[in-house]
Amino acid sequence: MPKMMKDMFDQLCKTFDQDEKKTRKLETIGFLYADSIFQGLMMTLLRLDSPAGYICRVS
Question: What angle do CA 11, 15, 18 make, to 5 degrees?
Fold first, then answer.
């Protein structure tokens, strides 16, 4: 999932012509659904951004 989100983030950056101020404000959101026998259906929210400009952060 993080690799796919990074690819999506890179495509978004290309649409803004690599403008540094705009790319620092961008985020890519991902929802991960998993079915567990013991806990039932679980949902996880992943956020990918690039606050420093050269490294992406997943939280």
Answer: 90
- pLDDT bracket for residue 8 (50, 70, 90): very high
Q: What are phi and psi of 28, to 5 degrees?
A: -115, 130
Q: Residue 38: which pLDDT band, with cuts at 50, 70 and 90?
A: confident
Question: In the chain, pLDDT over 70 holds for what percent of residues?
Answer: 100
Q: Is 9 left (phi over 0), alpha (psi -120 to 50) or beta?
A: alpha
SS3 assignment for the chain: CHHHHHHHHHHHHHHCCCCHHHHHHCEEEEEEEEEECCCEEEEEEEEEECCCCCCCEEC
